[in-house]
Amino acid sequence: xxxxxxxxxxxxxxxxxxxxxxxxxxxxxxxxxxxxxxxxxxxxxxxxxxxxxxxxxxxxxxxxxxxxxxxxxxxxxxxxxxxxxxxxxxxxxxxxxxxxxxxxxxxxxxxxxxxxxxxxxxxxxxxx
Length: 128
Ligand SMILES: Nc1nc2c([nH]c(=O)n2[C@@H]2O[C@H](COP(=O)(O)OP(=O)(O)OP(=O)(O)O)[C@@H](O)[C@H]2O)c(=O)[nH]1
Ligand SMILES: [Mg+2]
What we know:
Layout: E1 2-12, E2 15-20, E3 31-32, E4 35-37, H1 44-56, E5 59-72, E6 77-89, E7 100-104, H2 118-126
Parallel strand pairs: 1-6
Antiparallel strand pairs: 1-2, 1-4, 2-3, 2-7, 5-6
Residues 35-36, 51, 55 line the site of magnesium ion (MG).
């Protein structure tokens, strides 16, 4: 099963907004950058805006494509389209009851992320 996912790296002043995946979800108990699956024939950009509205309550006003990471978890193959989100209306929150946090990019390595995110975490930290 291959799933296309739009993911937002929500940035503000040296910090990034992350969320804890529910224990009953795929890769549960690990932190994530908010986002979700693209619907069939939906562009990744549209999916990003929709998912960040649903999950965090923000309206994206400025974003740029960062990169795509493909990863095989064995039970699931994902194609993650990462966007840096640098402008948004509203204050990000956990709209679906998920635990969320603004964390300094320099501290990002102290949070456990899914395997597919490791490269992104390293790159963000190296750029600080
Ligand atoms: N949102 C998000 N998903 C990630 C990240 N890294 C990563 O491997 N994934 C994987 O991407 C897949 C889809 O993401 P998702 O579970 O957020 O999808 P969704 O919001 O549509 O959820 P739903 O199935 O509850 O409707 C999951 O298998 C998840 O494990 C990440 O940083 N953010
Ligand atoms: Mg999601």
